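User: What would this chain look like folded?
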Amino acid sequence: MFHTILVLRFSLAISLLLVTVPSTPAHAAQKGPEARLLERTLKLLPEPPSVPVRLIDPDLTPDPDALRRLDAFLVREANGKIRQVIYLNRRAAIVENALAGKDVDVAILAAVIRHEMEHLRGAGEREAR
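Assistant: Here's the prediction, encoded as structure tokens.
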């Protein structure tokens, strides 16, 4: 599975269960491999995301089975608006492979983030591809 997108409805509690990965270089040097990976990945994009990109562990969410099937996703709030955050499944093969450090896997992860950026701009699945 290359990439699956699903806009999920979760309670605000999901915000408390995140593994937050700052995307600024100053933080990346102080943080672990996930922060360094995110910094490396974002450098491949033609423009940086205007929203945070966060890694989330599916096992720490209210519906882990739903998230395990996804590489990345957006969350629709109860009021119908899309939360301005791109979430990456920390346990997805794409993320695990990119953490191993191969350039091609980091590039694939960058493409996934770009795809989510397009959804945030209003693109449907076909346009985001």
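Confidence is low (pLDDT under 50) at residues 1-29. If you want, I can go into more detail on any region.
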